[in-house]
TrEMBL record:
InterPro entries cross-referenced by the UniProt entry: Cyt_P450, Cyt_P450_sf
Protein source organism: Papaver nudicaule
SUPFAM superfamilies associated with the record: Cytochrome P450
Gene3D superfamilies found in the cross-reference section: Cytochrome P450
PANTHER family documented for this protein: CYTOCHROME P450, CYTOCHROME P450 FAMILY 1
Gene Ontology process terms (BP): isoquinoline alkaloid biosynthetic process
Molecular function terms from GO: heme binding; iron ion binding; monooxygenase activity; oxidoreductase activity, acting on paired donors, with incorporation or reduction of molecular oxygen
Protein name: Cytochrome P450
Length: 161
């Protein structure tokens, strides 16, 4: 027997799925439109196979040459997806200098990789390069600049010429 409830569910479910897919795609499109260009990756492994071919003796065959080819195709700044992680590749020394000179504030509080979380405490105080930018970071930087990297300490490390 025909049921209006079953019919309405059969019509409403695909419409709802299509609407959700449409709005989700619009959100992702605006995010991806702000990212640098790059090759499309596979769903789980991303662009790992774009780094080179697999051969029996080595896992990747000349990944540095593949990065040069990708740079020629997409420009000096491009995105790769390595597994589930979006990776920004900067292929030019001039562009890298501009990034870290003009946009250094954007790179200060980077996320600490999970592998380093075993070694550091909650605030990252055991590894200075991964400290969050703040009072502790400034104090450690000043300490390194005045004590560790002073002229006499460097001369003692190098030894007499």
């Amino acid at each position: 027997m025909f049921s209006y409830t079953t019919f309405s569910l059969a019509v409403a479910a695909p419409v709802l799925i299509l609407l959700l897919q449409y709005f989700h795609g619009r959100k992702n499109k605006t995010i991806s439109s702000r990212l640098p260009p790059g090759p499309l990756g596979l769903p789980v492994i991303g662009n790992l196979f774009d780094l080179g071919t697999i051969n029996p003796h080595k896992i990747f065959n000349r990944p540095h040459q593949m990065l040069v080819e990708l740079q020629q195709k997409y420009g000096p700044v491009f995105m790769l997806r390595l597994g589930a992680v979006n990776t920004l590749v900067i292929g030019s020394a001039d562009v890298a200098m501009e990034f870290f000179k003009n946009h250094d504030q954007a790179f200060l509080n980077r996320v600490l990789p999970k592998i380093f979380r075993v070694v550091v405490d909650d605030h990252g105080h055991n590894m200075t390069p991964f400290n969050q930018h703040g009072a502790h970071w400034r104090m450690m930087r000043r300490l390194y600049a005045t004590k560790l990297f002073s002229g006499t300490m460097l001369q003692n490390t190098i030894g007499p010429s």
